Amino acid sequence: MFPIKYPIPQSDPPKSPRETLPTMYDLPSENPEEPGLPDEFHDWQAQLLSLTFCPPHYPVEEVFCASDMNLYYDVRHALWYKRPDWFGVVGVPRLYDQADMRLSYVVWQEGINPFVVVELLSPGTEKEDLGELAADTLPPAPSSLEGDGQTIEPPSKEKPPRKWEVYEQILRIPYYIVFSRYTNQLRVFKLEGARYQELELPESRVWMRELGLGLGLWQSEFQGIERLWLRWYDAEGNWILTEAEQERQRAEEAESRAEEAETRLESVLQRLRESGIDPDRFLEGQS
After folding, report:
1. Mean pLDDT computed over every residue of the chain
2. How do beta strands 105-106 and 150-151 pair?
């Protein structure tokens, strides 16, 4: 659903709520950088990315991924941040200080930048996600705050850089992924030298050799919703299974083995009967 103007003209018969009720992208936000909170698709898609992000070259405890988490990128401007829809980092502890879950990701403390960022296009953020906003349209820098008895930088007249510039020029994130649920278009930008270069995706897939993983569009059902989803796959082209899918697969395989064993047993019993041996009497004698 794309933004529409309000109020909605009345009609007879009235239009459905899906056509007339405002979306979060139509309503103002207390944060001028963000037109609204993530919608349901953002939540489910980010969850699927996290559940299947399993780089084989790194142990589980050295892989971190997050969605809708503040990413602080400039120690000189400690209040400046971006909030990717999803990002993945390798080579850092899964838990902060190997003990607790993170409340944010602060690159100058972590020492390692994200390896891949995924932005899910929304009507109000598309130009920003694709680096198409003019500099004078950016919101002003945040004001100073105090917390834990520590004063954080005074107000600055500087404006924070655009999301594209942060990913490309400051953090130098190797892969920047953009996906639109409205057009089902997947776009991948890879850092080549100092700039992002868009890759051609003949099969709507991209292989990331450094991770030993690929990302592509998967047409199937997730959380009861049938559509195209972004999902990670392995070197053989197989989609990485979630833990729930692995458990279901193990159960199906166990059931299949039981059925095969029952079929083999029935075949043996049938051959005994054809040879003039009554297996039922034999079994009764053994009991």
Report:
1. 80
2. unpaired
How close are the terminal C-alpha atoms of the chain, in Å? 69
Helix, strand, coil abundance in the chain, percent, nearest 5: 25, 25, 50
> How does pLDDT run across 36-64, given as a tens digit for each residue?
556 889 999 999 999 999 999 999 999 99
Q: Is 280 helix (H, G, I), strand (E, B) or coil?
A: helix
pTM of the complete model: 0.71
What SS3 string covers 18-83?
Answer: HHHCCCCCCCCCCCCCCCCCCCHHHHHHHHHHHHCCCCCCCCHHHEEEECCCCEECCCCCCCCEEC
